[in-house]
Amino acid sequence: MALFLSISLALILSFSHAPTTSAAVPPQPRPLDGLVENGNFEQAPAEANLKKTVIVGKYSLPKWEINGLVEYVSGGPQPGGFYLAIPRGAHAVRLGNEASISQILNLKPGSFYALTFGATRTCAQDEVLRVSVPGQSSDVPLQTLYSSDGGDTYALAFGAISKAVQVTFHNPGIQEDPSCGPLLDAIAIKEMRPPSYTEGDLVKNGGFEAGPHVFKNFSTGVLLPPKQLDLVSPLPGWIIESLKPVKYIDSKHFFVPSGFAAIELVAGRESAIAQEIRTIPGKSYNLRFTIGDAKNGCHGSMMVEAFAAKETLKVPFESQGKGGSKTASFKFQAIAAKTRITFYSAYYHTKLNDFGHMCGPVLDDVIVFPLTH
Hints:
Number of helices: 1
Strand content: 35-45%
Largest sheet: 6 strands, antiparallel
Number of strands: 28
Structural class: mainly beta
């Protein structure tokens, strides 16, 4: 009898622990956040498909489709006596007149993505890089160099309208020298999550923790172009509403007051960010934020101006370029159901030992909360 009971109990336990295939949940793929295929161009064309530096053949650049004069270049001294800086690797591509490269990405329809790409001009002429996906095209002007070492990085965001999305980088210009044109040295993509609120705070993404991909091996920050160039913001919750970009910086490469990331206002009054928050007309609120310097050699008397409803606050910060921050706050009364909060830098700045490198004050930890009295 005891043996019968033991066998029965074992059978019951074995059935109770048997896996149920119908309830199994398939593992969810990790959100995209990294280089696209051959995004750093380290997979080279075959020697037979290179005529000096010019790539011969539409599909000769691994993982990419090319059109027009596309060069595969290495960093360092170049024929003609000039130098190409390729800070994120050994190789890059240069787009000649009307040339382009494109790749089809496998994405989630309805989701939002940010492209991060290292791009710089290679000649003295004004150059433009056109970045296109189905339903959106953005022209990024490259005539202003924010990093004199060739490290300028940009981010653009878009919504995927289908599963297979073709991303194209195109030089729409006609230069006197056909070998001139934008240089691309790294391309990455990141799936963007919708911004969410933190309890007690009316600002979305006030700590700037949600943003585009940041290259890990080398970063001078990521330039976020103004809204007229970008239908979807690569900085969730925020509008870049100025003539020039703002810069997204990370704590690995810069001083950030708190968390992973912050914003550097690199172009004075020409770079500003804003957000519309929900408010109750007549109710009072407190706006609190932190400013500082990025420990990147940016020096001088800085000032960040903040606006909310009818109120303005100017916050000075004396920078030695070695890192540091301070917190400021002010009270405002809402005059509408939506209130726009805006920040910009009052002055222009460059690095202490590099006057070709534009920089500015850092903004972080933006918080708005209602006042109870």
